[in-house]
């Protein structure tokens, strides 16, 4: 890890994946022409890909159809460190920031795989049986990760 002030850069892939496994949600940043848009979402991570599910309509879907490039952020083990002096407040955290391309999954089996990864991320155990009509109504998005790094502070 490379020291950056009180923050440390994490480049070890296993440590980055550990942070992703502990994170409860992810934020995805999108670009609509020149207007940024960020949204928190539930997610799953497996084999260098982030899986998301959503309604088939809405602002994020419209933006992703025009521009599939995304940035994402996930944090785990976050804690506010208080002090008598407000200037000495700090935050303890581990986080991951990455970039990738979003792809809408159309194939039923691929959508089920993505939903399975999401379900497993939140501690559910399979095998899972998803109702076909519900899967067909959902939008399942796979972010193919191009690069990601981690940071930690206060550890």
UniProtKB/TrEMBL annotation:
InterPro entries reported in the protein's UniProt record: Pyridox_Oxase-rel (IPR024747), Split_barrel_FMN-bd (IPR012349)
Gene3D superfamilies xref list: Electron Transport, Fmn-binding Protein, Chain A (2.30.110.10)
SUPFAM superfamilies given in the database record: FMN-binding split barrel
Domain of life the protein comes from: Archaea
Protein's name according to its UniProt entry: 5-nitroimidazole antibiotic resistance protein
């Amino acid at each position: 890890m490379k020291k950056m002030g009180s923050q440390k850069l994490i480049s070890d892939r296993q440590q980055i994946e550990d942070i992703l496994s502990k994170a409860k949600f992810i934020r995805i940043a999108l670009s609509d022409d020149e207007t940024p848009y960020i949204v928190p979402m539930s997610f799953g991570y497996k084999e260098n890909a982030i899986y998301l599910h959503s309604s088939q309509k809405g602002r994020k879907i419209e933006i992703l159809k025009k521009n599939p490039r995304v940035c994402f952020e996930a944090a785990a083990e976050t804690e506010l460190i208080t002090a008598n002096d407000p200037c000495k407040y700090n935050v303890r955290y581990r986080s991951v920031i990455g970039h990738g391309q979003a792809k809408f999954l159309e194939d039923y089996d691929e959508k089920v795989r993505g939903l399975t990864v999401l379900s497993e991320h939140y501690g559910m155990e399979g095998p899972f049986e998803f109702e076909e009509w519900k899967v067909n109504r959902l939008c399942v998005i796979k972010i193919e990760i191009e690069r990601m790094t981690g940071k930690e502070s206060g550890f």
